[in-house]
User: What shape does this take?
Amino acid sequence: MSLASLIERHAPTLAAAAEANRTRTFFAHWPEPPSGKIYGETASADGEAAFKAQLNTPFTRLLQGATPDAVGEEQSPYGFDLGITYPYTDVDTLVLRANHAKLTWATLTPLERASILVEALERASKHFFEIGFATQHTTGQGFVMAFQASGPHAFDRALEAVSVALEAQTSSTDAVTWTKPMGKISVTIEKSYVIRPKGINLVIGCSTFPVWNTVPGMFAGLATGNPVIVKSHPGATYPIAIVIAEVQRALADVGVDPHVIQLAADTVGAPIGLDLVRHHEVRIIDYTGGPVFGATVEREALPLGKTVYTEKAGVNCVVVESVKDANAAFDNIAFALSLYSGQMCTAPQNIFVPATGVKVADGTVLAPADVARLLAERIDALVHNEKAGPGTLGAIQNERTADRVGEALDLGFEIIRPSAFVQQPGFDQARSISPLVLWAPVDRADVYEREWFGPVAFMVVTESFDDAVERVAASVRAHGALTTLVYTTDERKQDAAAEALVDAGAPVAFNFDSFVWVNQSAAFSDYHGAGANPAGNATFADIQFVTGRYNVIGIRKQA
Amino acid sequence: MSLASLIERHAPTLAAAAEANRTRTFFAHWPEPPSGKIYGETASADGEAAFKAQLNTPFTRLLQGATPDAVGEEQSPYGFDLGITYPYTDVDTLVLRANHAKLTWATLTPLERASILVEALERASKHFFEIGFATQHTTGQGFVMAFQASGPHAFDRALEAVSVALEAQTSSTDAVTWTKPMGKISVTIEKSYVIRPKGINLVIGCSTFPVWNTVPGMFAGLATGNPVIVKSHPGATYPIAIVIAEVQRALADVGVDPHVIQLAADTVGAPIGLDLVRHHEVRIIDYTGGPVFGATVEREALPLGKTVYTEKAGVNCVVVESVKDANAAFDNIAFALSLYSGQMCTAPQNIFVPATGVKVADGTVLAPADVARLLAERIDALVHNEKAGPGTLGAIQNERTADRVGEALDLGFEIIRPSAFVQQPGFDQARSISPLVLWAPVDRADVYEREWFGPVAFMVVTESFDDAVERVAASVRAHGALTTLVYTTDERKQDAAAEALVDAGAPVAFNFDSFVWVNQSAAFSDYHGAGANPAGNATFADIQFVTGRYNVIGIRKQA
Assistant: This one.
């Protein structure tokens, strides 16, 4: 397929994406239901078969030269080893290949690159079900969530990044005949403007969202002409490896060196992430993961003037002052706490309730103890719903996350809802536990203002609504947050909270009580992250998310 | 005047600026000739009178609270003390006032801010002549250049920054009703998006272009909602103080706290720049100046995740391989070397000529010695032109710059053109000297790859054109450059040079032999700086120049 026909084929998609980014209305290029009617009646079975065939065999789909070594140490949180190995490529080889691949990639026009990348996404989307199973059995997400998060939702985020990058790069003309009138004479210069990618774009992935958190930086880097190296998490390589292999094939099919995108697989014992971060040819770094290694990445890269986009960790808070419908509100909070067992960087952790209780529209007031009881009840209703519970909770990716529940219990705080083992149908060995909710004394900010990643939440009673908002704002400034969620039916209180929390640098959600949860951000409409607090500086995908990846350089010729 | 009427009044200007930025055709909102027909028959005399009245008196036009202390140590390079004092404001007071002023400034819409800023520029433009005299007698620039560089050219750069900032901030909607269809039901969220300025924007000015190099960052910072503190150079405060005072008045007239923009005047003996750089409320820094303090700014600010835009120093090179008209080409180079005595960050320093000589379109070949003779002759013709010479050269801002000519002579390199004292009519004490041009042996890159800021140039003979281009590319990578200039009539050589130099990260100009010089970049058309080499990361004004100054934060409400 020629470049010209790719451009023609994907022009409507790119136009729709650009329009969605401008208007921020609902738009999804890939539908979210894992339905046979949409993706083909055999798609699910085919995906599962591909997944099973891949287990315990080398992953050979990458177009990434031959390497003698292989690595692989993925374990399903549902209780078995994946047994897949990936080619190991050393840092120097990765950099050498990336630089070579850049030579042609950087000379394509932004529209050519964008069209190739949409084609790559379309091809990779044919593997949504395998990606879903691969995600389920590396991250522990329930299958439906795994399908959506690594499939349509992630791919829409990737398309969004491609679109924002294309719009930014083409916002000015790439050539002009410039004539300056100077009284009776004039002077003419032929000008052109070249997009110059900054260098190698390293993307460091995480174990919980190996596709969703990787593709925005990966596609933004590619769309702006940079070669990209994806350093996947050793515990969650399979899902992104499928995507990378498909992108490589789409590149090769139009005659582009597939090493424009490479997988850098390593092991927990012999990690290569820091060597890549430090390499002088690596000029852009996207990082998602824990705050400790994130701080190391920043310390190494920022003083060298490298572009660094981070999403580290934060402490997400909820304030409940008044609600229209208490059951609906706490169902929403219960789901947000339970979804993937709190292993989302956007999941709430601390729930603040004023000592005076929560006002309900029907006139009743729920005392803090009633609120706690209601929350426990709504979590129970979800967890014990045989159809919805296990899939919502999924399994715990990392043993240390599971251990944290024990640590929380050791605090000796009063228990609102105890955690318990959850049976995952078909997977007796799954590491699955339901959320623990504790009362935290308001003066124990030393505890609740730490991130307790996983199924641990705290309820905190504050003097008043204003007091709660102030505490949340201070927490955002000190520890960062990806989300905040406030329940108040009072519009003046809404305005005050929005002002305080936006000023602190956090996105704000109000009164969620339906099929939208604070954990989720919609591509083309919601920015993911604010980039304005210690949780990180990356935002999927504002303009800044792409403009740090290239320069525009002028060429002037006397006419 | 109401905000609504300001928006209406300046809409055509903002629309024209946005269109110019997109199309990059010639556009100048303020005409460059210092002509009475354009700016009013008495404008020049009025400006000179205002300048003379200001000498030896305190500058009282700032709306910047009362401060007990005053500082001022400006000296005209034309040989007299200005004797002007400026209010001194300590760092804590500056920060306190800036933060207070931000409260309202940040809540205005991007269009409101942009309209107020255009109004401020229009008002300040009424002082172009005084600004011109103030610039001449702080920087040493000849008057016409001073008028243009600090007046129309600078103001067009400021308008450009305002326009780029407005377009970026309004590229997506600020509110939407978002409805997600979910089969038989749907869910609706009311969304809004808030521009959140990052914090205080510090702009550190330089002594040679106190307005031109300050206003892009200053107006980009203001346009994106940040309060701005301008730390002017103690040797060149007067011109930017006039601008700041007018912006403050324009703000106050629409009821905005004028401390949105403040002048931070200090002294060489007790500088406050670094204290401001380090202050935790300062989140954005624009820096123009020497590379040593520039490196300090980066070392202090980058690890803290502050946004830093720098323009430090570079070594700008010329390669001459073949020309259409030798006199026209070397007239152009001679002017570029002489304009403001090489005190432009964009001025050429090193001229590379292949050993085989320079081919002229008429068939002759100029041996390197002929080339040197021709260059010296064209410089002489300009310098000794009584009408054009002194005004083109201007005076040397800093004594150390003048001393550098002596240091260059001490190298013992063969002299192509000796430097000499230049008489500036009316100013017998002016520090004015003509350019020194030396032969530099090609193996003395240790000398010529250093920046010799001021009227010092080197001619270097290389093996070939390709050798010269390679050396220039290597120099750009190692030492940075704001400009490169190549003369070759061979289109294949042009393509090869453009590829190599853009890859190294420098803008490229070809065959300039008319009324455009490599030193000059045209607002709305030429980016100033590439942001892609060690000379700095700032570019006036690409999109990145504004997007690092704010975040976009989403607010979602369940409908």
About this structure: The CA atoms of residues 419 and 436 of chain B lie 4 Å apart. The first helix of chain B runs from residue 3 to 23.
